[in-house]
Amino acid sequence: MTSCRDAFPAPKPAPAPDRPMTTTHVIVEDRPAHVPPGTLGDRIRPDFPILNQLPSPGRPALAFLDTAASSQKPRAVIDALTTYYETTHANIHRGVYQLSEHATAQYEAARATVADFIGAPDPHEVVFTRNTTEGINLVANAWGRRNLRPGDLIILTVMEHHSNLVPWQLVAEETGAELGFVGMLPDGTLDLVSLDALLARAPKLVAFSHVSNALGTIHPAAEITRRAKAAGALVLVDGAQSTPHIPVDVVALGCDFLAFSGHKVLGPTGIGVLWGRREILDGMGPFMGGGSMIRRVELTHSTWADVPARFEAGTPAIAEAIGLGAALTYLKGIGLERVAEHEHQLLEYALDRLADVPGVTVLGPSDPARQAGVVSFTVDGVHPHDVAAILDEGNVAVRAGHHCCQPLLREMDLVATTRASFGPYTVQSEIDALVTGLRRVNAIFNG
Amino acid sequence: MTDSIYREIILDHYKNPHHHGRLDPADVSHEETNPLCGDEIRIDVRINDGLISEIAFDGRGCAVSQASASILTDMVVGRPVTEAIALSREDLLEELGIPVSPARMKCATLGLKTLKLGLTGATSIDDDKL
Fold first, then answer.
1. Which position among A4, A255, A404, A405 bears the catalytic label?
2. Contact A401 B6 (CB under 8 A)
3. I want to staple A447 with a disulfide (CB 3.0 to 4.6 A). Which of A55, A73, A274, A443 is the partner?
């Protein structure tokens, strides 16, 4: 034992969940009230190595406006991954040796950090998944297959990402449950009248996105949840686009499940979170079978571990979970209210600048107060792919396509849009580069 | 910015596509979608004595996919069906004359894929076999 331990550098003790794992980020905790929060992007940008790379010769500086697809990572997250692999890695919940105990402690500390970040009362309610998609599939399979009967109603909305649509199509096909859809109003908000009509049919589950990835609409999640709970339904909130950008508190929302992805919230890829109310998780069977999720295994049958281990079969993404913990600690250090305020100022700036570009039509809520830092638009006579390709020639990165929301775009009689989306590190000059690029699009296609 | 793929040939074919529309009746009609971006192309073909006597395409999508389909129709009209089936991705890219990045390859070859699937009746072709 001693010689084995000596062969490794002494692992760092597991950080307390409420302490940052590294302190490379520069956060002004006591910012005077008169300092405009619009400078948050300028202030934290040095923390993001990828945004400070020199562009390749002949290309201008990168304007990264695709955070809704995946966010960039601060040094604190990159360091957490490196430090973990350099000092602490071993499999968790298995070894009785010190290294494994340290890895386990850090993994569980990350779980506690997640719970704290979303206001969950109990870290056991936090299940680590790969991403939002896996979290929703977990509920669809582990809860849906066991509890849904022919004719049972699942309520979704026409605005869902494919990840909150296709899993329910699959489980409905298997169980005979029916899908009902909350409609959308022309301004890209949900038609809550159609929600009430569906709720009158005693649904078993209501699942909806908190923020639309395609249009940026912030849905009234607490209000929808209140109505759904009053109708006796369970509520799943797809928090993929809300958790990184606005304060999300599961108790305040009142929901039963919340799913989100690590890579959109400044964390690594390959790690996500499903939060579920303890009594509901306790009553659910497993999703995937394998190691870690069992209590006792016989040749022909097994019994299940307690939650959350029951839903974490196999060796999990340990480093990524720890990296996610570092990301959430970093974001909490900034404060989600400030992130939301910063992104909202960028949104208003972008809407103002885009209004000056001929042929550009911005989609989504007419009231910016109901919109997150996502701007979806079309350019007259130019396909979004061409818009994005010409923007890329100016090193402006945006998303073009259906944003995994084909039914939503069909509602709007569109095949695709161009989407610019912001993060806490986004700065105004990136929006200026977007506008310059769009003028070039017009010059090429409509000149 | 000198390597723009939006050269005259692409913009000309995009704005004034050749053989654009539908043939009804047609001997072969086939429609394909690019699942990444939702682009659609439909190609109708009339065949006489083993030759593509008439061709028409219709669809919606980016300039690269639509211009490429237009250029493709110029390449194959009046040619034997066997020759159209044997046409390679490289043949088409040479005719396009623009640098096509991996991300845009599916756009540039959507028309070719549609035509080949229609003419052969195959259910799928791997992109690297086009």
1. A404
2. no
3. A443
Distance, in Å, from the CA atom of B29 to the CA atom of A117, rounded to the nearest integer, reads 55
**Catalytic: A404?**
yes
Residue of chain B minimizing CA distance to A415: B38
- Tell me the per-residue pLDDT of A262-297, one tens digit each, with 9 for 90 and over: 999 999 999 999 999 999 999 999 999 999 999 999
Query: Distance, in angstroms, between A444 CA and closest chain B CA?
Result: 8
How many cross-chain Cβ pairs, A to B, lie less than 8 Å apart?
55
DSSP E strands in A4-152: the ranges are 63-64, 126-129
- Residues in contact with B2: Cβ distance below 8 Å, sequence separation at least 6, in sequence order: A58
Q: Which domains does chain A have, with CATH numbers?
A: 98-332 (3.40.640.10), 336-446 (3.90.1150.10)
Phi, psi of A309 (to 5 degrees): -55, -30
The answer to whether residue B1 scores a pLDDT higher than 50 is: no
pLDDT of amino acid B3: 61
The overall average pLDDT reported for chain A is 91
Question: Is the complex ipTM more than 0.85?
Answer: yes
Residues of A in contact with B104 (CB under 8 A): 385, 389
Of B113, B71, B63, B77, the C-alpha closest to B92 is: B71
Domains and CATH numbers, chain B: 25-119 (3.90.1010.10)
